[in-house]
Amino acid sequence: MGWDKDVILKRALLRHNVPNGLSTSCHYDRIFLRAGGDPLTAWVPIGDCTADGGGLMYLEGSTDVGKAMEADFMERTEHLTPEERIDRFNQNMARDGQLSHNVIELDADIKAKYSSSKRRRWLGANHEAGHVIFHNPYMIHGAGKNEDPLGKIRLGTDLRYYWEGSQVDERWMRDVWRLEDGL
Prior knowledge:
The chain is built from three helices and eight strands, in the order E-E-E-E-H-H-H-E-E-E-E. It is α+β, with helices and mostly antiparallel strands. The strands form two sheets. Strands 1, 2, 3, 6 and 8 form a five-stranded antiparallel sheet that branches. Strands 5-4-7 form a three-stranded antiparallel sheet, with no helix packed on it.
């Protein structure tokens, strides 16, 4: 990143993905971190995770789309208070703060609104314990459906870093989660 020094957020997410259950839908991380600068996310699988075991999938070359979506969001929310604007549960997001729960619908929406001729693929891979994947806050991603043939639950964690001296989303520096955090 070229940072002299970084700061890690206190809140780290532990996410699960149970076989044939709901998991993390399509999003870009800036949705959840709007009160600060641009963080770097490290996704770390806890244990081995095959591509059909519910690991992360990334929309190829989607950083430009995430930035365009965020710019559009900020324009449409100029009338909101700062507190409402940073809350992912607002009128501009899906019911739980995500972009979409359906990659086919999201692909069509992206093609229609942001890049009519560019073909983008959803990319996934097998991951092993010890792997770390870094991504910027505008990369569109989500968890694949867990169809692990052995019925294993996939666990992973998100660690978020900021350049020391940049604006940090203080909601992520609190030790205790509260419903009104908007996270």
